[in-house]
Amino acid sequence: MDFKDTDEWTMNASIAAKELRTLAFSEANSYKRNAFLTAANNIEILGARLGAYFPDKFKQIRGVGDSTAKILRDLFDKGMSTRVEVAKIDLEKKELIDKDGVVKRPVEDVIEMVTTVLNGIKLFRGVSRAVIAGGIGRGEKFVSEGRIVAVVENNYDRIKIGRFIFEKGDEGEYGTEKASAIFDSGFRITVVFCCVDEFDSKVGE
What we know:
Helix content is 50%, strand content 18%. It is α+β, with helices and mostly antiparallel strands and 205 residues long. The chain is elongated.
């Protein structure tokens, strides 16, 4: 396959990182799980530069060993590694993939990250109340996203908080209704803004 096009390599780096995270979260061995996560993060950082390592230099990327290099070659040659396919089937059986195909994460792996964002939001003027909601708030053990609901009446304050979220993560977006960004290991955190009389209903969503 010819991946000389910069945009195509950027897309394939993103896909490869996502597939390696799928393997990581299906892996019981913590050492292997961390290795997959390290490789996924470094591949995502490389982006379009990943093309320089194709087809036989993947092991030069930090965190990529023999088995991971083979998985990457399979992904680019065949479109999917058998190992990734098996991991996805296993995760689906355990209901650890959501309706959009995003791998769910153990709450204990992400709660500190979500709490850090929550505490950062609470420092902004105009925030009268903010809580962790969504799956974490409902006490679920595995979640595909971190959700925070914040009472912020003023649109100007909402934009300031949204910019904070955007700058702290990757692939972010923000407006007067919500802000969202991807943080460490590909985990998305979304902040939903509301008025005080909407708070209970937003938390319950």
